[in-house]
Write a structure and sequence with these properties.
Number of helices: 1
Protein name: DUF6510 family protein
Strand content: 25-35%
Helix content: under 10%
Radius of gyration: 12 Å
Distance between the termini: 24 Å
Number of strands: 8
Organism: Streptomyces parvulus
Oligomer: single chain
Structural class: mainly beta
Biased composition (Polar residues): 1-13
Strand order of the largest sheet: 1-4-5-6-7-8
InterPro entries: DUF6510 (IPR045423)
Region (Disordered): 1-20
């Protein structure tokens, strides 16, 4: 997954859209998560992120500068998670 800091086009959902998929791999309640953008320094609750998707997965971006905060891509029995626009990704078993 290449780093993408350009402004996306189209409509977005709020960060609460990430709660369901993240709850499949995290024990903590995802909606209590707090994030900080490494580019502009904005921080806030997960719900403030702008989420685009659903295909091929969900991409959450900083609402101030559009920096990628995380990407989640479902695969049968697994979920791929990339944090902060990193080039690597985590693969979690969901089934």
């Amino acid at each position: 997954m290449a780093q993408d800091t350009g402004r996306p086009s189209g409509t977005h959902q709020d960060g609460n859209r990430l709660a369901g998929p993240l709850s499949e791999i995290l024990r903590a309640e995802p909606t209590t998560a707090w994030w900080r953008c490494p580019d502009c320094g904005r921080s806030g609750p997960l719900a403030e992120l702008h989420v685009y998707g659903p295909e091929p997965g969900l991409t959450a971006r900083c609402p101030a500068c559009s920096r990628v905060a995380l990407r989640m891509v479902p695969e049968e029995g697994h979920l791929w998670l990339s944090l902060g626009g990193a080039t690597g990704a985590f693969r979690f078993r969901t089934a």
